[in-house]
Amino acid sequence: MKILGIVAEYNPLHNGHIYHIKESINKVNPDAIVIIMSSSFTQRGEPAILDKWTRANHGLRAGGDLVLELPFRGAVSSAESFALSALSILNSIPCTHLSFGVESLRTEDEIYSKAKKIIEIKNNPRIKEFLKTGLSFHQCILQLSKEKYNDHFIQGANDLLALEYGQSAILLNYPLKLVPILRKGPIHGSSTLSSHFASGSEIRKRYFKELPIEEFCPPWVLKDLERNKNIKNYLKWEGLIPYFQLMILKELKYENYTGYEVGMENYIKEQILQKEINKPYLKETKRYSKSRLQRYLLHALLDIKKEKIRSHDMGGYIRPLAMNQIGREILREVKRQDKIVITQPARFLKKGSENIQLLLQEEILATNFYSILARGSFQLDFTHTPIIKTDKVRD
Questions:
Q1: How many angstroms from the chain centroid is the CA of residue 45?
Q2: Which tens digits make up the pLDDT trace of 174-228?
Q3: Which residues contact 346 (CB under 8 A, 6 or more apart)?
Q4: Which of 65, 87, 86 is nearest to 9 (CA)?
Q5: What does the DSSP 8-state code read for residue 384?
Q6: How many CB atoms lie within 10 A of CB 175?
Q7: Please, what's the largest Cα pairwise distance for the chain?
Q8: Alpha-carbon span 78 to 283, nearest angstrom
Q9: CA neighbor of 88 nearest in space, from 312, 328, 372, 343
Q10: Which of 93, 191, 258, 322 is least surrounded, with the fewest CB atoms within 10 Å of its CB?
Q11: Closest C-alpha to 247, from 363, 369, 362
Q12: Is 259 left (phi over 0), alpha (psi -120 to 50) or beta?
């Protein structure tokens, strides 16, 4: 059985995602599509603009058969941990193929070849020399790849993630077929608009500024965004600032959280406690990317301590958010293999493995914090059951 995996945030789902799914189906002709989707917060450490169940339903409507949750610890993490967490879950299904967008990488062989070289570079002792110059770990990788292979390897954010998927598959010894899809329209993070296509970040900017986005998203996504418009401003990253300020004013053990390095606390205090009205609260530096700082602050706020669980230990976390009849059959097969499927979190908080209990506790806390921001109800992880679509197999 050919099962195609897709890792996504759908923040929000837009025409580029529809194109990606259709192209993936054309290339793979899968029997089923499994989507691993970030939950309430994104890889950049920002609140998603729609709740996880609404976005999971969008994934189903766009062509997925089963949407599984990527829990907070995996979703709000570096590209390396994000990819390893997602592939650990895909491997537990197991998916046979993985499709993703790229800027320049064209073939599976190219991705695996470069992924192996990057694994070698990460183990190069000269990394420490480069770090001492103030470069980030990612920048050190780029410098060493240029020095050793005369190739930066990476043209954009999607290429970076593609190579992380390749490395994760190698590290997990997971014989995964990689299916790169060349992006259509503007590159990730671009403010450029083209006919019917815009980057997710640009769509979010336009949504918050109440500029037209009808051209870039399916009508059923637009309907949910419209329904959410009264709370959208609460879901901006800036809405988290008062929580961060209160956290910093208390005694905080900065070293307990993922992403910390010596001296970071001084920069964070300076940035988050500054009083200038029109000054951004987090300024990116050569050493600290804005995403890294945002992730770190969110982990500290929710007290998600580092090294309690490793990314490749997330394979047991199979939690469906939405499915159709094909997806239900996949889960039945997973259960036949004596694997655990989490449909009732309360039960697994008491009887699950130590890893599952920890991941669920963190996820429930993150969902409740999202509810605070969105002025919504609490304990939704206990009251929401997976969305099950029974009328059709796919739209």
A1: 9
A2: 999 999 999 986 665 556 667 799 999 999 999 999 999 999 999 999 999 999 9
A3: 382
A4: 86
A5: P
A6: 9
A7: 59
A8: 18
A9: 312
A10: 191
A11: 369
A12: left
